[in-house]
């Protein structure tokens, strides 16, 4: 199943006008191809000339370079502005494709420039999108004209590219660097945008790989970490699947790719095959039904613990093939839906084997996942059902 071609629409000036700024020439290690300027602009300029990226409901996740807007953060900012006048915020960071330098002046040990950002110049906010939304609300919806001459510090990064998307790796890396030590973005978002490591780049490439009869991996994996119709696992869970299926830790994989760059293509091919070979046999179709939320809660295969257990079983199978010197045929996982009740977490099998815990409350049975060794138990059950020899680590 092939995905439809994606349409890329760059952000331009919302007001359709050029913007002139006075800035200081800066220097950072972002990239040799990127020019950096530091300065400030008025709230009015900020609100009129810059917008934020569409969220993942409107924009395909493979095109996103930022996390989705979090409504609760906007509400908190609005509350702050309604209750306080002593507001102060850190600088924002903006990427643009180009600027026109109108004038250059040396002042002290700094170089000051007047630059012009044309209305049709591509632009993207990497840090400060929630503050941007709030500023627009304050000025345009709440008519807070008293804020129009307030200033916000800014870092302006000029990519010198035709399209802002030509610099997406640099943009995403800055987002990850700014937020990597913060708890604000969830782990799926931050890890997806972190391309500073070989593993990070490999995993980002992986999500566009095909799953037979299903679509691309990104069609069933929520990069933003927010599950919705069709999305079963988070990007963080996919990474963990890879680690368990390959049988190596993140550090071990990174070292392997660093020490032997030529092994990257072989390793990537192997990861694609194990994901396709196992995922194509899972009933992802059920997550497209109108009551998908209810089904996700009721089913077992949609849980992170099952994803991890499936990966462990896949590792056992590949180890078995290597030991017996037989070719890998991932169709051994065909029919897993028929031989195991993976669509019903309340099935007695899962209770009897300790995968789930059943508790009575007000005459109802509440079924919860046993996180204490549950994935290992699932792996053993899968191996037994599909006639795969479990590894010693699973049986001990």
From TrEMBL:
Alphabetized Pfam families for the sequence: DndB (PF14072)
InterPro entries linked: DGQHR-contain_dom, DNA_S_mod_DndB
Alphabetical UniProt keywords: Plasmid
Name of the protein: DGQHR domain-containing protein
Organism (species): Vibrio alginolyticus
Lineage, top ranks: Bacteria, Pseudomonadati, Pseudomonadota, Gammaproteobacteria, Vibrionales
